[in-house]
Amino acid sequence: MFDLKDKVAIVTGSTRGIGRAIAEHLARAGAKVVISSRKADACERVAGELAAEGLTVMAVPCHVGYKEQLHHLVDATLEKWGRLDILVCNAATNPVYGPIADMTDEAYDKIMNTNVRSTFWLCNRALPEIARQGGGSVILLSSIAGLHGNDVIGIYGVSKAAEAGLARHLAVEWGPRGVRINAIAPGLIETDFAKALLENPDWRDRAEQNTPLRRIGQPDDIAGVALFLASDASAYVTGQVIVADGGETIS
Questions:
Q1: 97 is catalytic
Q2: H helices of the chain, where?
């Protein structure tokens, strides 16, 4: 049920952290995977490392803030492998910490455009291709920040709530054509994105004690959920937000 042989996947923001872990696990399950992020050298480096393991990958740099680059990402995938089965929209940003009242218009636009508009653009380009060859799976990366209030990353949370909502609406639209769309809402994961928080021993200890599993999440913890959603193991799951947070939101 977890075999992805002959499937083709695009994973945005896949040169580090959660995105790279997802790309690795999809490739190890047999998928042909497109490695993509803003920097060409990073894409080539990661693709080279995975190819050295015998995995089938290629690098396509893409700045998700530009529609033409998102279209090129899909076009290059189709040109190379002739199909698209799995899309993982992982690329995101959060350039500011602090109350919403202090946020500039520029910061607001950067968060919402990178996290929401780019996903809207990419889905509109990719979903017809996935449907055309019989259906597949789309995975949006939301966050538990989109499920509860926060006084330092509020607009980031708003953007992640919007992505969860987008998954539900797209699932209704594209379900009749065999395309499943779901979202993952990670909790605190040990990545560069959370580095500033996790380097504070007191804060890290408090975070661990407030999580029933008593640990910080790892990228592989989210990659496992993505593999489930990408595969036939989740063939009857669509329009859902799967929380993977060690139990933080229920404790």
A1: no
A2: 17-28, 40-51, 67-81, 105-112, 118-132, 154-174, 195-198, 201-209, 219-230
| Structural domain harbouring 157 | 8-250
Residue 143 near residue 156, CB atoms below 8 Å: yes
The two tokens of residue 205 are: 């200890």
Q: Which tens digits make up the pLDDT trace of 115-144?
A: 999 999 999 999 999 999 899 999 999 999
Side-chain-side CA neighbours of residue 73 (13 Å):
36
**Residues 165, 170: Cα–Cα separation, whole Å:** 9
Query: Residue 144 belongs to a domain with what CATH number?
Result: 3.40.50.720
Say whether 98 sits in a helix, a strand or coil: strand
| Active-site hit among 66, 108, 156, 236 | 156
Q: Which two tokens stand for residue 8?
A: 């083709």
- The tokens for 161 are 């709530």
Digit-coded pLDDT (tens) for 174-202 = 999 999 999 999 999 988 877 767 777 88
Question: Any idea what the Cα angle at residue 131 is, between residues 3 and 51, rounded to 5°?
Answer: 40
Q: What is the pLDDT of residues 200-224, one digit of tens each?
A: 788 788 888 989 999 999 999 999 9
> Taking Cα atoms as reference points, which of 188, 174, 72, 195 lies closest to residue 130?
174
Dihedral sign of CA atoms 76, 77, 80, 83 in order? negative
Per the domain annotation, does 3 fall within a domain? no
Q: What is the model's pLDDT at position 198?
A: 78
Does residue 2 belong to any structural domain of this protein? no
The total domain count for the chain is 1
Beta-carbon neighbour count of residue 133 at 10 Å? 14
